[in-house]
């Protein structure tokens, strides 16, 4: 996608809004949609496209207030307050960091969260999956079952797997890590924890994996991990370690495999939540959704470079082979 097209999808500045949209805004008729996200990427594009598919066009019949916090987490409270002070009708927040900041800033504005790392009931964010009960709902991943499937697939590609490294974000990934730990015990492999907190920790983790004789790596999810996918693929190749992740973007960046949901589709799906909220559905009654479709992506070029022969039985099940 060309940069100009990307910027057009994200929406222009207020000076570019048509006069009619400004008149509607002044009359209080234009919904204001807050969007809090770590970086501008394909997920942002998918969300904006989802809004367009639902009939919402920035600067015409909706105002989309996008706030990007990048790596500076201490900016989140101020950005969340900005969206609340703007009296957004609904706020979409693309990570635990983001929606927790918005939840602290408001108990009345509907919030739609996207999270792959946590159990929203166990964390106390909602009363139940079917009836959240407050001003928060969203799309969450049911990881325990997925972790076992990832280890199973990795063992098919690398049959000698016995010492499994797990790269995980120690700030928000404990639930993921514990689920993977349980799955590893069931699969009969020894798990080695490789926690990270920032960009500089990835090289340290892979160096340790090579030093400790780890033979394969599960890469768990977090906004930081997704952002560092190119570097992760490079370090894994340098350490000659097969990897699997739930981010399908990782094998496209040079990792070995992925089994997980289509993340842009999840972001696009949040636009449906926004549409229903703007049409009057109470967020307290909107069930938490789980992804129902998972994609298997395999990078054969990477497999060859690692000296692996991926069995045809595995290739035949792949949604995408690179």
Count of DSSP H/I helices = 14
The overall pLDDT, averaged over residues, is: 89
CATH-level-2 architecture of the largest domain: 3-Layer(aba) Sandwich
Structural class: alpha/beta
Give the termini distance in whole angstroms. 20 Å
Task: Determine the strand fraction and express it as a percent band.
Answer: 15-25%
Instruction: Give the total of domains.
Output: 2
Strand order in space, largest sheet: 7-6-8-9-10-11-12
Instruction: Identify the CATH homologous superfamily of the largest domain.
Output: Response regulator
Element pattern in H and E: HHEHEHEHEEHEHEHEHHEHEHEHHE
Described by the principal axes of the CA atoms, the overall outline is elongated
CATH class of the largest domain, please?
A: Alpha Beta
The helix content, as a percent range, equals: 40-55%
Report on this structure.
- It is a single chain.
- The protein is built from 14 helices and 12 strands.
- It is elongated, with a radius of gyration of 21 Å.
- The protein has 2 domains: 3-141 and 263-285, Rossmann fold (3-Layer(aba) Sandwich); 143-260 and 294-321, 3-Layer(aba) Sandwich (Rossmann fold).
- By secondary structure, it is an alpha/beta fold.
- The strands form 2 sheets. Strands 7-6-8-9-10-11-12 form a 7-stranded mixed beta sheet, with helices on both faces. A 5-stranded parallel beta sheet has the order 2-1-3-4-5, with helices on both faces.
- Residues 1-27 have low confidence and may be disordered.
């Amino acid at each position: 996608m060309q940069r100009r097209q990307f910027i057009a999808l994200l929406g222009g500045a207020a000076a570019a809004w048509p006069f009619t949209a400004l008149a509607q805004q002044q009359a209080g008729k234009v919904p204001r949609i807050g969007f809090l996200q770590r970086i501008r990427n394909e997920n942002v594009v998918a969300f904006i496209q989802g809004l367009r598919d639902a009939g919402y066009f920035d600067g015409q019949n909706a105002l989309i207030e996008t706030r990007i916090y990048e790596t500076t987490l201490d900016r989140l409270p101020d950005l969340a307050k900005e969206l609340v002070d703007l009296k957004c009708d609904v706020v979409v927040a693309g990570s635990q960091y983001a929606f927790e900041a918005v939840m602290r800033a408001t108990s009345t504005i509907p919030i739609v969260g996207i999270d792959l790392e946590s159990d929203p009931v166990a964390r106390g964010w909602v009363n139940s999956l079917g009836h959240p009960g407050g001003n928060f709902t969203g799309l969450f991943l049911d990881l325990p079952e997925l972790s076992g499937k990832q280890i199973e697939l990795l063992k098919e590609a690398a049959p000698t797997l016995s010492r499994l490294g797990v790269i995980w974000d120690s700030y928000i990934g404990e639930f993921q890590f514990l689920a993977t730990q349980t799955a590893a015990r069931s699969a009969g492999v020894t798990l080695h924890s490789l926690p990270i907190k920032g960009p500089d920790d990835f090289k340290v983790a892979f160096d340790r994996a090579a030093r400790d004789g780890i033979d394969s790596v599960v890469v768990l999810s977090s906004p930081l991990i997704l952002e560092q996918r190119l570097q992760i693929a490079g370090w894994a190749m340098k350490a000659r370690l097969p990897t699997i992740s739930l981010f399908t973007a990782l094998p496209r960046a040079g990792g070995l495999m992925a089994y997980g949901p289509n993340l842009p589709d999840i972001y696009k799906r949040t636009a449906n939540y926004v549409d229903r909220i703007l049409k009057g559905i109470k967020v307290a009654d909107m069930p938490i959704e789980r992804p129902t479709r998972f994609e298997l992506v395999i990078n054969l070029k990477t497999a060859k470079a690692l000296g692996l022969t991926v069995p045809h039985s595995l290739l035949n099940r792949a949604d995408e082979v690179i």
